[in-house]
Amino acid sequence: SSQSALNFGAGPAKLPREVLTEVQKEIISYQNSGMSLMEMSHRSKEYSQINQSAQNNVRDLLNVPDNYKIMFIQGGGLGAFAAVAMNFMNRTGTADYAVTGTWSAKAAQEAEKYGTVNLVFPKAKKPGKIPDQSTWTLNPEASYFYYCDNETVDGVEFPYIPETHGVPIVADMSSNIMTRKFDVSKFGCIFGGAQKNIGPAGVVVVIVREDLLGNAMKICPTVFNFTQVHKENSVLNTPATFSVYVMEKVLKWIKESGGVENMEKQSQRKSDCLYGAITDSNTFYSCPIDENCRSRINIPFRVGGPQGNEELEELFLEEAEKRFMYQLKGHRSVGGIRASLYNAISYEDVALLVKFMKEFQAQHQ
Ligand code: PMP
Fold first, then answer.
1. Span 13-59, pLDDT tens digits
2. Active site residue 172
3. 152 CA closest ligand 1 atom index
4. Does the beta carbon of 193 lie inside 6 Å of ligand 1?
């Protein structure tokens, strides 16, 4: 039954069961209004409350200082790549990018349409390392410095916030937002698509330091102009109301589950458990990522030796599905297996995966 599906997908991904049950209860009549939230105006009092509560929850959960504005846009992570450049590139016409995998590479490519992009270290042929900061070539004149805090496809996560000597930092936290505490005041802008840790697809959370607003390029579409979106309190035009509604509930669920502090603790436990199984497998399972930048959230690994045995990997996926474990296939550009351990995945879910991995190894090595 759907009840027992173990969803290790990279996104859209598992949502807390409690949230889905609540949505189900309200789907036809939201708070006894006789209407679904989906059928209500984005200017209704009901949606205004949801919009405000979602923003407040982001602020509380991440301890966002008052001089940072929180807003919601559409267009996904890819839209945000362009929006970032169009909102911030204007200052000097150039920006620094740290490319550590698929998504930061795409962000850099998108930004090139709007200005000069300087890669602070050469793009690696195979991701899996973050070059030491002392080797980076930072441009002190950069409008901003950009990096992806967690590379969803490649499994590379920053173990630190880069030091940029005053240049505003822009971070893509699509796949690890709300999974660990961090100091928002170190950033100029943080964004994240909701569809992994905080809700359904369709909405992107953007947090911007106030003094960086007001500088968008003339060509910037109004819906991507952070200054205008903020001015209209994220109802500049029709937002993805249903996505924001569900996200508001997920954020509340995080609060009630011990906040980001507990998400971080659980995330460490879950990823330690899975990496432990990989390390203990005597190279039957292997993860190609440097130990100091292994993602706690998206864990890519090969089966049947460090190069991977594709036949065995096919079989692994088939056998996993027989145990109701789904969406474990690695990204098409990387191959192998990838387990995504977002907030809604419990330690017990990971323990079941690890138990299966041990049995599979015993049968096939
Ligand atoms: N950044 C990261 C880190 C992602 O994982 C993704 C999507 N997997 C994106 C950006 C792109 O998001 P979208 O598909 O919403 O454009």
1. 999 999 999 999 999 999 999 999 999 999 999 999 999 999 999 99
2. yes
3. 5
4. yes
Please give the C-alpha separations between residue 213 and each of 11, 73, 189, 338, 355, in angstroms, as whole numbers: 30, 15, 10, 38, 50
Lookup result for tokens 């579409």:
221
**304-342 tens-digit pLDDT:** 999 999 999 999 999 999 999 999 999 988 899 999 999
136 part of the active site = no
- Where are the alpha helices (H) located in 112-240, listed in sequence order? 226-231
Mean pLDDT confidence for 349-364:
98
Residue 110 CA to ligand 1 centre (angstroms):
13
What φ, ψ does residue 209 adopt, rounded to 5°? -70, 130
CA-nearest residue for atom 12, ligand 1, is 77
Q: Which of 81, 151, 152, 195 to mutate to test the pocket of ligand 1 (most atoms within 8 A of CB)?
A: 152
Question: Among 196, 249, 252, 329, which one carries the catalytic annotation?
Answer: 196
> ipTM of the assembly?
0.99
Hey, what domains does the chain have and what are their CATH numbers?
17-256 (3.40.640.10), 259-364 (3.90.1150.10)
| Residue 2 pLDDT greater than 80, yes or no | no
Helix intervals (H) in the chain: 17-26, 45-62, 76-88, 102-111, 226-231, 241-256, 259-279, 310-322, 347-364
